[in-house]
Amino acid sequence: MLRTWPEDIVERSHSLAGTSLRTEIENFIRLHQLPTEFHSEVQQYYLPLALWLQEKYVPGQTLVVGVSGGQGTGKSTLTDFIRLILSKRGFDCCAVSLDDIYLTRAERQQLAEEVHPLLQTRGVPGTHDVQLGIDTLEALCKAGNQSSIALPRFDKSVDERAPRNHWPIHKGKAEFVFLEGWCLGAKPVAAPQSPVNFLEKSEDQFGIWRRYINQQLNERYKELFSRVDIMVMLKAPDMESILEWRKLQEQKLRERTGAGMRDEELKRFVQHYESVTRNIMADMPLWADCVLQLGRDHKIREIRLRPE
């Protein structure tokens, strides 16, 4: 693994920061309510990443960039920023999130009744409409200049897929498609694992839920994840950090809207994701194209690039 950006990319990112993009970057930081020290991360990591991805692009084709990372690692912020920079450099970009292709509430209720009650809760592999994701990526990759592609949306406030007439439309040919999600790129484990937390011990004593998740990763999710050309990973230092970062997210949500999970609710919720998250944290750094290692303070501490 390489631990620095190529020298020419570092030089060009320094030049880029001094152009008209400066105002765009300032506006982005203000809009996303990011701390002032985010400027240094932009210079060291975000701008070089945008230029590095640009070098991977083949004219006339669509590059699918995966952005994977545990809850609260900053996937959406990273995706939004890279899209901004690439679009300002003349590229057509769009983004699809695994959070927007969940099964409907009725479909998850059916799974809960037929397989395991925990499948009512959206999030884990097995609770997504994988075919919808595959079809959306395929449509975007085949789109022409006159195409109009509907991008799925899920309304978390009512735990239901948004009506199709509320989905945003991407017009034209996408040159970069960003696919982001906490379990993006997860691989099945070779053998069933012992429970890793209280939720699994108390509500999945026989491992039915865990085996179903593993089975899904070994089947339909493989096809969806195989559509990714370049994988970027935001790697948290540990599960404890992910829980703390999610607490901060929920706290901000409560301050802004009055809604949001309390600490005990959140702790149980995050336990749904723990097994798969731990497996990703152990496996993905070995093969991802770019790993952005986060510190406990949520800042990027280093990069690792897979040699070509």
Unreliable spans are none
Query: Helix amount, in percent?
Result: 40-55%
- How many structural domains? 1
Structural class: alpha/beta
Provide the CATH top-level class: Alpha Beta
Total helices: the number is 12
As a percent range, the share of strand residues is 5-15%
Order of helix and strand elements from N to C terminus: HHHEHEHHEEEEEHHHEHHHEE
Q: Could you please say which CATH topology applies here?
A: Rossmann fold
Q: Give the CA-CA distance, first to last residue.
A: 10 Å
Instruction: Give the oligomeric state.
Output: single chain
Strand order, main sheet: write it out: 2-7-1-8-9-10
Give an account of the 3D structure:
- The termini are close together.
- The protein is α/β, with parallel strands linked by helices and 308 residues long.
- Strand 4 and strand 5 form a beta hairpin.
- It is globular.
- The protein has one domain: Rossmann fold.
- It has helices spanning 7-17, 21-31, 38-56, 75-88, 105-114, 130-142, 198-203, 208-218, 220-225, 239-257, 263-271, 274-283, and strands spanning 63-69, 93-97, 148-150, 154-155, 160-161, 169-171, 176-181, 230-235, 290-294, 300-305.
